[in-house]
Q: What sequence folds into this?
């Protein structure tokens, strides 16, 4: 648990920001990522 909490707050904008927006918009939205 300590390792997960240390990694989450350590890089919350790196592994969580580029993943959700890219995979969420492309998989959830029919529109392309460029639009």
A:
């Amino acid at each position: 648990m300590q390792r997960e909490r240390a990694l989450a707050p350590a890089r919350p904008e790196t592994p969580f920001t580029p993943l959700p927006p890219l995979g969420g918009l492309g998989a959830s939205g029919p529109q392309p990522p460029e639009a």
